[in-house]
């Protein structure tokens, strides 16, 4: 067993770190203040990422990506997690569910997404269907040879910049011994399709500038060519491709926690009260000790889960553990950071209050902490017949 | 033409250095090490010369501990074509002195016959600022130190140098040794495809003994000390307050 990084991995980490420090950090305060990313800046970040060959680095070389392993990609995400999500969004990592594109879909969606020409967003959640994805009300019915979609999606991240959307819609219902069960199909929907509107969403306390929008479908007509995967095969594509995105959330949480921790550590080493640096009080140093222990634990949990995926080992339970622990760790570490800073920690002169706010959503999106615990529990107990 | 770029593995510029308890030097155990920033500028300049068609091959050389291999991989990932590692120390705390480095580089140059050596003006660890100059003396080559701008024109190089109080432009005969100053260029990030390619590029490993150079230190470090800590500042609320504080302090 070897816990070190290879030379390549070290270089990937240091390149992405340097990129985030030089190209992202300087613009964070403005994005926080205005709540938006200037389009020129977005283009600039995208252009530089493309130039560096990091754009869509999670995609295999056959489609123009860099073919990073899950582990290497987790290292990239960990570094990106240090920076503002509104900005790192343009260090593009399209949803790898696009690998399910077939035939003409590859030229229209997959390849332009990898080349940075078209951006995607993913829409599952609805006002009445969050954790319970299958409870969705958005439906598509057959009409002639087409599908006609009606319904609403909300909380759709990056929808303001997206050129097309991967939308999950109910396409029927089966009767099962446990009651009726919806069949789900994934569709590719272009911005501007008649009957489809993107509306401004809510204002979130986390990740200002990384907008979430509301999508409305009002008799939106889609041909069969827009079906991603098989008709009624929505859960299949979801389970094949969206499985690993939770590692991304965990890895970003670890990166952000380290940045918050470093601020707190240096503050503790420099701030003087009662005639000495506050780091000399165990009340402070023990908080730092606990925090770094938790960060390391989350880091290894995350990398180990990614490694399992690379080895082709079952990883559902491990990914859930990593997502659960890393996001909850981030909440504790950012809270600790503010405590160590005292009153100044709450002020927007320092980024800590932002990390603390941003941390909140990580325990909710991509499956809430409760849903992760549910997955872990089920994976443990189901084999025992419970 | 071939360019030789010596690169040194040094303590990362972001690391807050600590002096070892016995005062024998700076503590390097478990600290982040990186390529000397001036050497990064030299690698960048060499790659730009190659991109401009003035140079065919960029060879990076590092002299030090075995771990300097990582530094060479970084140079390769930036775009150098191949690398030579000369292992001359086992302990990260053993710094190879400029004269020994210059002698080793002179031997490498005998073998490689580059038309240009691009080196950093100094290493940020010991700030010696001597290797390029010593190498020039050993080889009898021309030198242009502290370059702010480099242009290769046939068998000459026109180099704008940063000197006290301004810029000086010199024309030197090739082969020559140019050392880089901070404003020469802004080094690129290693691109992902180049990072992946770096492992496949050749990296020769040698030892100081292979070149018959004695690297034993000629200098003795008598003492290393932390710089004196600055006294805490004071925030003032207005210009008037500032002026009165300055008067109080007797400086205006
Ligand atoms: C800023 C933001 C961006 C988002 N971006 C996207 C996006 O791009 N695309 C997208 O499709 N979705 C997105 N989401 C939606 C996100 O995935 C959901 O918010 C999440 O799945 C939870 O759903 P919900 O908010 O409806 O909460 P609910 O599902 O209503 O949950 C409410 C509470 O009940 C708990 N709960 C629910 N079911 C159970 C259970 N079985 N056992 C125990 N507890 C349970 C939950 O854990 C939670 O505490 C985003 C959300 C936010 C906040
Ligand atoms: C919004 C806001 C409004 C405020 N309003 C007022 C006001 O109206 N009037 C006023 O006078 N003040 C006010 N304050 C100041 C407030 O009382 C201080 O912020 C508080 O006393 C902490 O001081 P500090 O922020 O300088 O943190 P510090 O004293 O620097 O503390 C930093 C960290 O070190 C820890 N620490 C310090 N000493 C020790 C020790 N001996 N042992 C263990 N841990 C230690 C602290 O617990 C904290 O975690 C306000 C603060 C805020 C944020």
UniProtKB/TrEMBL annotation, chain A:
Its cofactor is FAD. Residues 6-117 form the Acyl-CoA dehydrogenase/oxidase N-terminal domain. Keywords: FAD, Flavoprotein, Oxidoreductase. The keyword DNA repair does not apply. InterPro entries: Acyl-CoA_DH_CS, Acyl-CoA_Oxase/DH_mid-dom, Acyl-CoA_Oxase/DH_mid-dom_sf, AcylCo_DH-like_C, AcylCo_DH/oxidase_C, AcylCoA_DH/ox_N, AcylCoA_DH/ox_N_sf, AcylCoA_DH/oxidase_NM_dom_sf. One of its GO terms (molecular function) is flavin adenine dinucleotide binding. Residues 121-220 form the Acyl-CoA oxidase/dehydrogenase middle domain. Residues 233-381 form the Acyl-CoA dehydrogenase/oxidase C-terminal domain. It holds the Pfam family Acyl-CoA_dh_1. SUPFAM superfamilies: Acyl-CoA dehydrogenase C-terminal domain-like, Acyl-CoA dehydrogenase NM domain-like. PANTHER family: ACYL-COA DEHYDROGENASE. Belongs to the acyl-CoA dehydrogenase family. This is Acyl-CoA dehydrogenase.
Automatic annotation (TrEMBL), chain B:
GO terms for biological process: carboxylic acid catabolic process. The keyword Isomerase does not apply. Keywords: Electron transport, Transport. It holds the Pfam family ETF. CDD domains: ETF_beta. Transmembrane segments: none annotated. The keyword Electron transport applies. One of its GO terms (molecular function) is electron transfer activity. Its cofactor is AMP. Residues 23-215 form the Electron transfer flavoprotein alpha/beta-subunit N-terminal domain. Heterodimer of an alpha and a beta subunit. Belongs to the ETF beta-subunit/FixA family. The electron transfer flavoprotein serves as a specific electron acceptor for other dehydrogenases. It transfers the electrons to the main respiratory chain via ETF-ubiquinone oxidoreductase (ETF dehydrogenase). This is Electron transfer flavoprotein subunit beta. It comes from Rhodosalinus halophilus.
């Amino acid at each position: 067993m070897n816990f070190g990084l290879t030379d390549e991995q070290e270089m990937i980490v240091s390149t992405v770190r340097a990129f985030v420090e030089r190209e992202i950090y300087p613009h964070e305060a403005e994005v926080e203040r205005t709540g938006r990313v200037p389009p020129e800046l977005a283009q600039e970040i995208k252009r530089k990422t493309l130039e560096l060959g990091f754009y869509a680095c999670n995609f295999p070389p056959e489609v123009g990506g860099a073919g990073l392993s899950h582990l290497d990609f987790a290292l990239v995400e960990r570094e990106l997690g240090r920076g503002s999500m509104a900005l790192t969004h343009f260090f593009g990592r399209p949803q790898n569910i696009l690998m399910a594109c077939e035939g003409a879909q590859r030229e229209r969606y997959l390849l332009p997404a990898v080349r940075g020409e078209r951006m995607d967003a993913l829409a599952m959640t609805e006002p009445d269907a969050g954790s319970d994805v299958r409870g969705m009300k958005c439906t598509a019915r057959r009409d002639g040879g087409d599908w006609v979609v009606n319904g609403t999606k909300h909380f759709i991240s990056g929808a303001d910049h997206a050129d097309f959307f991967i939308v999950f819609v109910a396409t029927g219902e089966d009767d099962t011994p446990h009651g009726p069960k919806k069949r789900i199909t994934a569709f590719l929907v272009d911005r501007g399709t008649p009957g489809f509107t993107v509306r401004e969403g809510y204002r979130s306390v986390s990740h200002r500038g990384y907008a979430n929008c509301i999508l409305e479908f009002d008799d939106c007509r889609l041909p069969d060519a827009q079906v991603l995967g098989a008709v009624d095969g929505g859960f299949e594509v979801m389970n094949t491709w969206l499985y690993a995105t939770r590692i991304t959330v965990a890895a970003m949480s670890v990166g952000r926690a380290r940045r918050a921790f470093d601020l707190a550590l240096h503050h503790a080493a420099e701030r003087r009260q009662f005639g000495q640096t506050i780091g000399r009080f165990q009340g402070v140093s023990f908080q730092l000790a606990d925090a770094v222990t938790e960060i390391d634990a989350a880091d290894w949990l995350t990398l180990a889960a990614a490694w399992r995926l690379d080895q082709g080992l079952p990883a559902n339970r491990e990914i859930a553990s990593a997502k659960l622990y890393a996001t909850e760790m981030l909440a504790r570490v950012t809270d600790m950071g503010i405590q160590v800073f005292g009153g100044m920690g709450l002020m927007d002169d320092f980024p800590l209050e932002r990390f603390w706010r941003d941390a909140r959503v990580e325990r909710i999106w991509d499956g809430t902490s409760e849903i992760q615990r549910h997955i872990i529990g089920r994976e443990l107990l189901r084999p025992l017949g419970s | 033409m071939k360019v030789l770029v010596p690169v040194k593995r040094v303590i990362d510029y972001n690391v807050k250095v600590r002096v070892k308890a016995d005062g024998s030097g700076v503590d390097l155990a478990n600290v982040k090490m990186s390529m000397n920033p001036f050497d990064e500028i030299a690698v960048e300049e060499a790659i730009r010369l190659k991109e401009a068609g003035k140079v065919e091959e960029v060879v990076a050389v590092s002299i030090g501990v075995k771990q300097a291999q990582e530094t060479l991989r970084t140079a390769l990932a930036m775009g150098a074509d191949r690398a030579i590692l000369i292992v001359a120390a086992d302990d990260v705390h053993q710094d190879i002195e400029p004269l020994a480095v210059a002698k080793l580089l002179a031997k490498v140059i005998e073998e490689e016959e580059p038309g240009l050596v691009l080196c950093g003006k100094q290493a940020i660890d010991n700030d010696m600022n001597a290797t390029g100059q010593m190498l020039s003396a050993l080889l009898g080559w021309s030198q242009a130190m502290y370059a702010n701008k480099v242009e290769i024109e046939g068998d000459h190089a026109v180099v704008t140098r940063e000197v006290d109080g301004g810029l000086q432009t010199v024309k030197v005969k090739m082969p020559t040794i140019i050392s880089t100053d901070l404003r020469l260029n802004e080094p690129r990030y290693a691109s992902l495809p180049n990072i992946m390619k770096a492992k496949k590029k050749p990296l020769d490993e040698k030892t100081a003994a292979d070149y018959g150079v004695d690297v034993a230190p000629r200098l003795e470090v008598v003492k290393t000390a932390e710089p004196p800590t600055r006294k805490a500042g004071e925030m003032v609320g207005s210009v008037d307050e500032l002026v009165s504080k300055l008067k109080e302090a007797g400086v205006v």
